[in-house]
Request: fold
Amino acid sequence: MTVERQTMEVDIACVGFGPAMGGFLTTLSRALVDENGQPLLESSVMPGAPLQVLCYERADDISFGVSGIVTRGRSIRATFPDLNPADIPMTAHVGHEKVLYLLDPLGASRRSTGVRALDEVVKILSSPKDYSYELPYIPPFLRKEEGFVLSVGQFTQWVGSQLMASGLVQVWPGMPVSEPLIEGNQVVGIRLADQGTNKDGSPAAGYMPGMDIRAALTVVADGPVGPVGQKLDRHFGFPAGNHQREWAVGMKAVVELPETCTLEPGTVLHTIGYPEPEIFGFLYVYPDRVASLGIFVPSWLDNPVRTSYRYLQHWMTHPAIWPYLEGGTLRSWGAKSLQESGRRGEPFLVGNGYARIGEGSGSTNVLTGSGVDEAWATGVQLAEGVVELLKAGKPFTKENLGDTYLARRRNSWVEQEAKEAEKARDGFQRGVLTGLAGMGLTGLTKGIMNLGAKISRPYERVPSLEEYCREKILPSEIEHLRSESIAKGSSLADAVMDAHGWPQIPLDGKLLVSQQDALLMGGKVQAQPGYADHVVITDPQLCETCNPQLCVEICSGQALTYTEGGGAPQFDREKCIHCGACMWNCTKPLEANGERCNIDFRAGSGGLHSAEN
Amino acid sequence: MNGGFHIVVCGSIVPDPLQTLAPIEGPTGPALKNELMLPAVLDPWAGHALYEAANLAKNVPDSKVWLVSLGPKAKLQQLMMSIAQKVSFELVVLDGPAGGFTDPCEVAAALAGGINGIAGLDRSRLLLFGGCSSASRDAGVTMQMVAEQLGIGDQFLGVDELTIQADGSMKLLERIEGGQYQVSTCTGAPAMLAWATGNLPEPPNNPQIGMMNMRTVMPALQKAQPAPVGAAGVSYLGVELPKQRRETRIVKDLSVDEVAREIVEWLKG
Amino acid sequence: MEKILFIAHTQSDGTLPNVAREALSAAVDLSKKLPGSSFVAGIIGQEANQAADSIASCGAAGFLSVTGAEFAVSRYATDAAAVEALVRQTGATLVVAPTTSRFSRALPGVVQRVQGRIETHISGMDIVEGSLQIQRWYYRQRMVATLTRAQRPWFLVIDGGVFPAWQGEPGSANAENVAVQLAADTLRTQVIGVQAPSTNTQTIRPEAEVLFVAGAGWTKKQADGQLHLKDAEELILGFLKNCNASLGSSKSLVDQSVEGEAVLPFMSHLNQVGQTGSTPRHPKGLATCCHGEEPHAVGWRFINERRAINTDANCGWAQGKADVLYVADAFQVMAKVNELLAQ
Reply:
């Protein structure tokens, strides 16, 4: 029996509820009614009814995921001038900010000659007891004063509950969107994910084909690894010269600090230098002795077995960090991919029937390391543009969206600062010191001077295991590790880190726990049955010759595992936290010099269901 | 009986069972740490009751489903965005605590009051549904008390299957001891069924059902009546997590044969 | 002065279930410790003399019964009427009852009728300074509370396995029959009988020495990248047969079977232990291929000796919760265990 695919008509269909969508829907909903609550804009699909605006979100509740950030919050404050941090759980005004350069107390870190030289200078300047050096000066472009430390999860829940209570727009969680509906060069809506399927997507009992939601305007805010954005990119390509080749995994935790911890709410701590020089760390303190902390593992950490979890634990146990945390408890944990190409990663922001906002639209500022503020701003800009078009009765064509939304975005601080920042991180392609120098140069000259470099595709940067290990592990030992990994189907990252001198983490069952326990204690993955797997190997043959498999090594939830004897990895979605790292860490391009690799990251249901995020 | 059933489902929120729970001493007695921040789900057994209700309503023409929920309004709103996509119902909200440390008698009184206030409810066609036990208080008594207050004298606990027979009577399977079922028949409504898991999978999310429900869900939330239930007369002398940490001996390096031999010796010992 | 009423119902053979004797121990204990209290026992069933006589020496000052064909079966309307009559007749302030499916269904409504209060799943009782305190679990066995109450009558429903079964000499109880007027609509519900679930009932054995807990690992792809469901089925059923064990399973495993995936066909939600399942009591438990932390591991909270087999040394089912964790492939170990048990 074939089950017919149903169709529903709405005015505006939206994908992904994050900060950008929060900005869009908040601004839009305020324009939908007059001061007496009477609708100002009429639906064209349901004449007589108010404008029908529907947003679909994959996660089981709106915005789950560990997501501590610090933001200047300029656009958020513009939308909510009276915002009181006390109204939102886990929010505080930014207080003391500091940046620490961390030395390696263990001798296990891979440090270039230049970094070692810097270490020596720092040792002279620093207090040797905690192996850190506080930078005496934080350049203005990195400061977040007047802003907030907040949990994006709690913030978007706060925004979402107000939106839902208004009844003016509808936000539906637990509903993944699989693709845009494209007719010719026109986006005419979205297709929801099929339900009642087997893991391979074939119909099973209770099969219900994903509904087509047709709309005059589709607003795409499904983030850097979202399936709708990806499919638009595949269809429309990128503007000349643009590409998304720089990424990072942000692995984060929410920790209840020990009673002895003296850090004040609002404290912002950033680190560089450790556990590898390429890895940045952060710790933001919320009220009530709760902190969000984590690390960023960038795509230019040239390690064929790079991983996040163990590095996070080594960072937490650094002598300059651990005294704050010792005796604390893990409350929540998770990870996400960050699109780090900034403005250079911009896709086509508008087209006939669609517009893109937020991180997936390249709004993140790679110099200031700020994304939420910018994402929110792009949502506001689009809403203002949309209201202008609706009031004028003009259709959502590429041209009209260009004249309204795009014009606003291009004339805003978001664009101006993104342009300044565009090349800020290019230096990291040549090494961490060049990168830091480049950022400084870009920041201090407002983008006039940069340390440029060719931007490689992530897979082009990944060295062979032999090359990576040449200083610490004998080729015979590497061969042994590799063959053992293939035979047993075991991961290599731990063995390679062990061999480089990283000690075992002393698990305490509270804060330092195994990766699987972190997944259980902090991540709480929801994997609804009845959906197709969302991580799909496009060509399993390509995996036959792949070892180490970087997708397995980097996998935040250990959802991807080796297959005994080699071949395509196994995927267990009950462990997948939807970070998307597998997608950009795959080292097998589908075609020579292509941008796409062998892992297709599709629409999936569920993901993190974090207690406090 | 004329027409279909009027099915009233009692169901509220509980913390997602996967969350780490810890008790604290709150201003009005014991509570959960960060209770309002914990992700909530529909109480699992009440959820099964709701899905069974929707299925029954679908199969018996002229039936209707109400969902009566006692919980904090803000948390219920969040949950309803998930539930409302699955099955059609009319929502009745009682704005009060949903934690486990409230007295089932007070909860039952509030629920019965909420049900008594439903306009157009035909008591002769009433099937009162709920879970056989909540995942919070886990007492397994509330539904019976609600039913008693509504004058329902036929009650079933731990129901896994309801069949409407050709003569309109009901055949029920209730869980009893030893993994068995008691089979009963009942001449028809009114009756109370406190469900175990039933046999239905969770329905898929359907955007059209969601849009339909939204027309009544948000107004129902706005109209929510306060229901300040507590636990009068109860003195909690302490609530604690069990301290049952064992010294686990980890055996890593034994061969399969040795492990098996050790296990068999232990089993036989 | 508390008036204690112990109530129980008979089984189909006229005897009292074991769990009733356990609750009786609790009632006897209460009557001894509560100064000035009185103690009466009430039995419900087709016929009550055999059951009442079996506990004649328990110390109750009197024995009451509600008997007749209508009270032979487990049915809300008749059971509630019977218990209500006993409570009203005795003016009881404390009603002690065993946790049975029959009383779990019937007692709460009676509480409503007599304007009392009820605590179920009681796992401990104490008399402190002359007043009764009880323990019970909240949030599906995840935290335990100690509490006391002002209201009476207070119904106390005692969980199985908490108190030792009362052991005493039978005698002559001379139970006094309490007449119960049944309303005309009391018999709208008819009990047809008892049915084994469609799954293999042999796998749930409340009285078994050993609980075998199967986790989702049994239905995952194994190291060779293949599923081995047939092997898993043979190994598990083989062990249950050899060891006469009861079968429990993790939530994720039974969820798969509800979703209609080709998994272990003899499993159902009835087997589920843990947060959303049962918390059985057995002397020994062996968990295999389970992974999880607190919410799931509550499933074997009441298992005395616990061992686990898992490939992950940090398995949350085992660390700190089992006595021994074998880091090994359960498929291989259980094959060998079955071989040894069969010898």
